[in-house]
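Sequence in, structure out. First:
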Amino acid sequence: MNTTTTRVAPVVATDSGADIQDWRPEDESYWNSTGKRIAYRNLWISIPALLCGFAVWGMWGIITVQMLNLGFPFTQAELFTLTAIAGISGATMRIPASFLIRMAGGRNTIFLTTAMLLAPAIGTGICLQHKDWPLWAFQLMALWSGVGGGNFASSMSNISTFFPKRLQGTALGLNAGLGNFGVTTMQIVIPLVMTVSLFGWLGFGGEPMLLVKDSGWIFGKIKAGTPTWIQNAGFAWVLSLVPLSMLCWFGMNNLKTVTPNSGSPISAFLKITYLYSLAFIPSIGMLYLYLPAPTGLGLLNMWVAIPLDIVAALAVMRLAAFGAMKENVAKQFAIFSNKHTWSLTALYVVTFGSFIGFSMALPLAITVIFGFQHIPDAAGVLQHTLKNPNAPSALTYAWIGPFVGAAVRPIGGWISDKVGGSIVTQVISAVMVVASAAVGYVLMQAYGSATPEQHFPMFMGLMVLLFAASGVGNGSTFRSVGVIFDRQQAGPVLGWTSAVAAYGAFIAPVLIGQQIKAGTPQYAFYGFAVFYAVCLLLNWWFYLRGGAEIKNP
């Protein structure tokens, strides 16, 4: 009789949208009768919410291309900083996001962080209607978009609490893999919605601008002179975020066994807002020291700025910790004494760092490298200002790579379960060394050619190969973390590695942008190839060689 009572209670709580007091996913009878339905409902709501988070975080990679096509008064280097700012903000936000579920509850957290995306979406739509606004206004919106990047850590932490151990790999793979499709969705949806007056029938939405350069979408080119509603790149997400936020609130649950002291929803919302606000402090401070005048002081280079931002974020979290958060912070810091935390961090930068970094940088790189003819002047100096009439449109092709990378991610996990995570990581690292070096060579040829479009098919094929390898590696690295670390440390390690790897969204746009400005875009990819080769040796040394401390085939 007592067993029947405990099984009925969570069903009633779930149907009413209230907190669940009793949660026993490892109890097979409970799971089959009650838990399975609740867990999968939370998962199916979590996936589109995370997808929108990735979309809002990554949207500046597409927006900057169209700003260039519409003649916004910013240099190519300044436009690359917008994607970089969004990248570093999202990476930094992941550090506090890993604490949110145990402090504020899953339903509270996913609802509020999804609803928070409305602010950068609407703000971006407003800014994009004003060509004459200063660069800092657009940089502020890019910074705010980082909320979407932070949502990955809280979303993965939340879903892991709903499923039994034997199903966590599948559940997390679905959440992460399908959530990653937000990058591809964004790259397809934004070019589409910019072709129409999306909100014109409601009497608002702004006036169109005329393209000064050819643009495009997945079905081909859009000629210069075509009306374009660039503001829809931000406004369009309102159509999904409003119903999704409601769905999160009425369809998801807080597990009191995980978060016994979340307090009232208002109390939980204040905790979330407090932690997310803290994440902006190190990001803003570091960017002020990194970005050149007039936005910042330009005192730091990227390789100093990133470690400084990470250290500052951790310091802020530790100093600001209170109540139950102190214990979570202590657990987070305990992983740093394990050398495998650092090796797995480097390997996850190879995989997810490459995926998100190339996703951010690829659209603008295609536009800048293949959109212009590279012709020497009378003095023999190459010029890169003459428009290429045969240029491929970035908005037509840029989505393919992230689509492939996200699609193969579950395959990487499945193969790793069969043959071993480190073996798969070793193979994909070798592939990425060769492919990255080859991309560098192709870019060198294209950036010195009056007809760079001739090199585009080879470039695009190699980039798709890089995305595919990084996608498979995402799955293999997740599997390795589960094998190498115990359950107490695996969660914090996943949160930490995902945060550091997300800095790839900052590194790739900055590095590629810098090298394009210097006239040597190939050096960026040669540098990536060297890093992949170092990590290939690291993976072999720690996990595959004969005398390895931990054998993780």
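Second:
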Amino acid sequence: MTGAKPTARPAVAGLRTPSGTTVHFASLMALTFAIAATIHWVMMPSGPAAWTREVERCQVRSGSYLGRFPESRPEAIQRYDDFAGCLAERVSDRVLWTAFALSVMFALAVLLYRLQPWWRIRRQRLVELRSADDPELTAYLRSLVVEAGLPRAPVFLVDPLNPRAGGLAFGHGRRRYVRLDAGLLTLFRTDPASFRAVVLHELAHVRDRDVPITYFALAVWRSFLITALVPMVVGLLWLSWQDAPFRSSLGISWRTACLVLLVYLFRNALLRIREYHADARVSAWLDSADPRLCLPALPGTVTRWPPVWLRRHPRPASRVAALAEPVTLSRPGFGEYLAAGIVLQLCYVHAAMPLLAAGTPFHVFRSLSGGWGALVTLLVGFAAVRGAAVTAVGPRRTPVGRWLLRSCFGLGTGTLLGERLSLSGLGDPLPGAVALVAIGLLVGQLVLLSWWVHRCSRLLHRTRLARVRVIGWFAIGTAVSLLGWSWLARWSSPTNLDRVPSHLGRVGASIADFGDEAAWTGLDHALLLVTWNPVVMEFAAQNLALCTGLVLLWVVPLLLAHRTRIRFALPVGLLGAAAWLVFDLAVKAAMRDTIPLSERATDAFRAVLTAWEFSGLLLAQFLVGAVVAAVLFRRAGLAHALFAVATTGLTVSGMIWAFARLGACVPPLQAMATRCPGVTSGEYAATVLGIVTVEGTVAAVVGYLFGTTVRRGLRRWSRTRAPRIVRTPVGAGTPKPGRAGRLVAAVVATASVVVLALPNSPFETGEESSAPVAEAERTGSNGTEAASGTAPGRVWLRGGGAGHFRAVSSATVGFAEDISSNAEVREVRGSAVRLSEVVTEAREFPEPPDSRRAELWDEMLAALDDSARRFVDALDTGTLDREALRGVVESFERGVRRFEELLDLWCGEYGDRVLAAC
């Protein structure tokens, strides 16, 4: 079976996709060193218990509890920075220990890598093949080296005791060896074709440069077992003998076993994938896909055990199938991106988070999450590029959409599994409903983003200019990186998203309260929740990176397309802005007729008016997107619909800012402002355009889908009702460069980004302030701080709260016994002084993390302190009579009641033994 020369690594638009060996090697290195870093971080000679106590103590002192990371509130960020500063004083020894352990692991890996050729030659007693031994054989081998295109011939060695007809390429650096078994040398005389195929297969490993990659990976695996796994097993056994709680804790053990198995599977995958690529290269050299010619050394029998994921070599059937279609080696798949997701999440949690959470400010932590999001988007972009490359050289109808869906689903699933396998969080291994929903949303967004990259790469494939390709790839990479950095970073910790629904619910309720306060129409509530959407206001308002990425979603395809067809989209966008102007004037006229200006100049009516304005704009953008989609071509309509919607949004944002600035100067436009000109800032325009950009993108996509559905329905109806008529859509005809259209698109995009990048200075007046945002954030902050959580309460108890609780309890009991037993005055006074001192120390300790317990704690300490101080003062001044003693007893009883309530509250949530255990 012969055919065209197959290609193992296809290219698209000037980019060659990396080989699977390189991808698997990078994943294996990242995963191995990340797991090793976490093992050494946790299993430091002082033990994990000491580190846990330090983390809990710093959480209590700072009031910032892990699992409740702040998002934007300054006081919460300050508490987190205090926590990081507290740990920074104690983390230097662990950083040095981890760095030293990783250095030892790397040094041992390098040593094993350098020694493995010497050890293999010595152990197998290999002999170098010289020209004098067999001139004909050595000359033929030199010809095969030239055929393989190697600049330097490897050293050929002979294994005289091995009867197999096989070979092996090994070595380090530039020193490469090829072992020829004794059985293979007999084929040189009896079956030259098989001999040639086997030798070319080993030379293909040398040509693909996977020999140093493979053997360094094996060296890292062995070094990992020696320097990380063995010390951890010994440490766990030591802890289980020294510390009783570790005897019943299997969280670290089973997660470690899973991670080690994962590293082992990655090593086997690396060894398998290199064989596929070597087979493909041999097939290209032989110009044939016949397995009898390319794979003569395949075993004749196939065993079902072990399974393929435990094998170091692929099954013969898989090698034959890949040989027939070598282009499939470059297509994205579920398993590869599942592994990539696990590796990325484990590296994020294991290597970076402990270091950052142990001594860096909060903005660095947010930058880490942004980097995670950027890497996720680059991974799906890489999958889309590989899909486009396979489509370019593969069959005409390649199911690239199915591949992208599987890749994104694998990446999302790997992210969730990676977090569950992390040693940094030993919670419930089963994900909650919120985490599953969050991963589903992540997968959906990744699919859309990967399809966009695929379409842009197809447009670049039609471009012949190298400069345009470079600029195009840079723009595509910038777009996906910005979207990942600003938006997808929220999915870096799926478990932490459990608190988001309740927080957004409180923010939404606070925004909806403006509708009750204004009480203008029955639609105010709905419009406020749609336009001042909590998600948009929480994550997208004044988010320059996100909005810039959304702008690039439409400007990049328009600049890369051959025919831009701006002549229709631009007027439609301006017409949508004009329609909004009519709507806005009507709303303001109705408001002026029904509400006096004194009542309109309030935060509630400003919020309601803005909600009506944004709702009208969203409706206009929806209609603009639907019209553009219904008229233009289906494939090119989405970018044009987004451009038209962006034109509408930019124009309307300018009008809203102008009305806020000059509305009071023109009586028909006066709605809220009471001075001429109004006082506003560039932040107002940037905020409005940011909200319009985010919500307008959603409106454009929905309108595009609606317009295409209507267009398809009308086509079916026209085909059934009338003879087929060929109509030319708007913008069709002779292809033109479209420089004017591209210039217009670039101007609109640049203007949008410039407005979004205006300085974020605070408002000087409340005239145009975003009151719903400020009020919602204030209410949401209070609600978050008041929320009770089991984990923070336990941390507070273990971090010193239980000790103060027991100290206050002991001093209270002692004072009560001395009073009730009519002890000597000196002893009773000493008990009262001790109680006052213990209460003073407890007051200096941070209060419990939730509001109810904090309230009871403060009331208890205040009552007990008041009772002790009143008794001591009355005793020292000689005014201790029946009335004074009654006041002391009443205050003391009030403190005891608060103590009992607090004790019942803690035991009801944590169990009766929680205080004793702490």
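Remark: The chain is about 70% helix and 5% strand.
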